[in-house]
Design brief:
The chain is mainly alpha-helical. The chain folds into 2 domains: 235 residues, no CATH class; 220 residues, no CATH class. It is 76% helix and 1% strand. Strands 1-2 form a two-stranded antiparallel ribbon. The chain starts with a helix and ends with a helix.
Length: 572
């Protein structure tokens, strides 16, 4: 009986399958309630994420346009919109950002299941260190501004004291927030968090735009004064001693503390622009990570450590470039502080760049060729931090590339056969080529999978450490131990493959070169303001607009390239 009962359904199944084979060949999972429910939830989640990103992006766009309109009106119509009005608007935005950051720290991040995932690639130590470094310099900048405005309180408004005070609180709170929560993938209050992050990004962008604008006006006034002094040099002074009393009503008195505040403010001013740009990049990664769920295979099990192992020639060449660049920089700064910078100092400055830039370009080209020969797998996993690094490298490089093309057109159209003009022309062409080759090398290296360290190398290091710790080293044995340590370093250097050695040498050399190329324009070496070639061709105002939008991007590019090259060095 049991066999018959079993055989009957089989007979019906065979006949049913023979009559309608198309019904069993397709299983309609969409008719299941669980499948329809899960798919609708996923679709709604994606739609809600896109809608939240769109709304928060529109919020940031409107805030940036409003602030840009205020700043532009201040530049072109100082009577209707003053700098104090712009400061009031930015102070309101800072207060709103502070309220949101405090609510995130005390409320959103402490909710249950708020931070289930953390992006291991976001908030690298060098980025957070840059936030602390530039944030500390920006705090000192605001302190100097408060002290300077307090001394000149008889001719300055109280807004000039209140605005930097709010700025100090904003910088401290934002730096703490980014240091502890830059890796968060928040899972609650998505829209509120996205809007808060975008509002903070927009505020930092407006602060950067105001800083660039103020620096432009400051350098423009300083250069105009220098031109006036050059014209009046050697001529008899006017017989009216009180002709300039109106311009000296709000000048710094002849006291030491006032001069310190003034010089410190001018020295630390470029760091404020870098701080705003770095904060924008970190906040953008946090905005992309809102609601993101990271699977386990995206989480790296071991974090690569930075070791000065396997590099000899890169540090030597890079250190030489840094020392020579520091000497050229000091020589230029001493000469540029005079009323008439000599022609020779410009020749030395541009000659240094003409020698260094081809070396950097050749190194980047060799590194790119080695990447192609390695046949290492590309890392195709979703990584918002890496995507942002690529965008920032390409976007920031446009500053120097754009300035270089403007210089090339001006110099070719005037007199390219002059010595200084030919040096500037060569510098502009080499700078374009160096930026392009370095971007290709860094971006290609960022997309390579990490190379695991050799087991043989690690075990030998552990054995050497254990043997050294267990042995009692006497005075006579100290030289032998140093000799053994040197031999061990040479052995580990030769143990690496030639491709990894060359990549590490090139990466370290480019790191040091980008550091000195970041230091020189950051601390005041701006020959494009002083040589007068492009300024006489484009006109005073036009050239200053070009330079002061391209120069901060160039400084940011050098700083961001250091982080990318360190990543390439670690992954080699």
């Amino acid at each position: 009986m049991s066999d018959k009962k079993v055989s009957r359904p089989c007979h019906h199944c065979k006949s049913r399958s023979a009559s309608a084979p198309t019904d069993t060949s397709k299983i309609h999972y969409e008719k299941l309630w669980l499948y329809r429910h899960c798919s609708s939830v996923q679709q709604r989640d994606r739609q809600a994420q896109k809608a939240g990103q769109l709304f928060s992006g529109l919020l940031a766009m409107n805030v940036v346009f409003l602030g840009s309109a205020f700043i532009s009106s201040m530049i072109f119509n100082k009577v209707a919109i003053t700098l104090a009005d712009v400061w009031i608007l930015l102070s309101i935005l800072k207060v709103l950002c502070l309220l949101w950051i405090v609510s995130y720290l005390l409320g959103t991040s402490r909710q249950p299941h708020a931070v289930l995932y953390r992006d291991a690639h976001a908030g690298a130590i060098w980025i957070r260190g840059s936030v602390l470094l530039f944030g500390s310099c920006s705090i000192l900048l605001n302190v100097f501004q408060i002290g300077y405005s307090t001394i000149l309180v008889h001719c300055k408004s109280r807004v000039e004291i209140v605005f930097p005070s709010i700025g100090i609180l904003f910088i401290c709170t934002q730096a703490y927030f980014l240091w502890h929560h830059s890796k968060d993938c928040i899972q609650v209050q998505h829209n509120f968090t996205r809007c808060g992050l975008m509002l903070t990004i927009a505020t930092n962008l407006l602060l950067w735009l105001l800083a660039v604008t103020n620096d432009t006006l400051h350098v423009e006034m300083e250069s105009q004064l220098r031109e006036v002094e050059r014209r009046l040099a050697g001529k008899a002074r006017s017989s009216h001693p009180h002709c300039c009393n109106e311009t000296t009503l709000c000048t710094c008195p002849n006291t030491t503390i006032c001069k310190v505040f003034q010089k410190g403010y001018i020295l630390l001013y470029p760091f404020n622009t870098e701080y705003c740009l770095v904060c924008c990049s970190v906040l953008y990664v946090m905005w992309k990570n809102v609601g993101r769920r990271i699977s386990h295979h995206h989480i790296p099990h071991t974090k690569p450590k930075f070791k000065l192992q396997g590099v000899v020639f890169g540090p030597l060449l890079g250190t030489s470039a840094v020392i020579i660049g520091a000497c050229v920089f000091m020589m230029y700064q001493i000469q540029a502080t005079t009323l008439a910078p000599s022609h020779q100092v410009f020749v030395i400055y541009y000659s240094y760049y003409i020698v260094l830039l081809p070396l950097m370009s050749v190194g980047a080209v060799i590194g790119t060729i080695i990447h192609a020969l390695e046949k290492k797998e590309l890392d195709t996993l979703k990584n918002p931090t890496r995507s942002l690094d690529v965008v920032l490298l390409m976007g920031a490089a446009l500053g120097q590339i754009g300035m270089s093309y403007f210089s090339i057109v001006a110099l070719v159209a005037t007199d390219p056969r002059d010595l200084l003009n030919s040096l500037i022309l060569s510098y502009s062409v080499l700078l374009i080529f160096q930026n392009i080759t370095q971007n290709i090398f860094v971006i290609d290296g960022l997309h390579r999978r990490r190379t695991p360290p050799g087991k043989e190398e690690d075990t030998k290091e552990v054995q050497n450490r254990e043997a050294f710790s267990q042995r009692r080293v006497s005075v006579l044995e100290l030289g032998q131990e140093i000799r053994k340590a040197s031999l061990s370093y040479i052995h580990s250097y030769s143990h690496l493959s030639w491709k990894r050695r060359v990549l590490r040498e090139i990466s370290f050399f480019l790191v040091l070169c980008n550091i000195i190329l970041w230091v020189m324009p950051t601390f005041g070496a701006h020959p494009v303001f002083e040589n007068g070639m492009e300024r006489s061709f484009y006109g005073y105002s036009t050239w200053f607009v070009i330079v002061n939008f391209g120069l901060p991007l160039g400084v940011f590019y050098r700083m961001h390239s250091v982080g990318g090259l360190l990543e390439v060095y670690v992954t080699a």
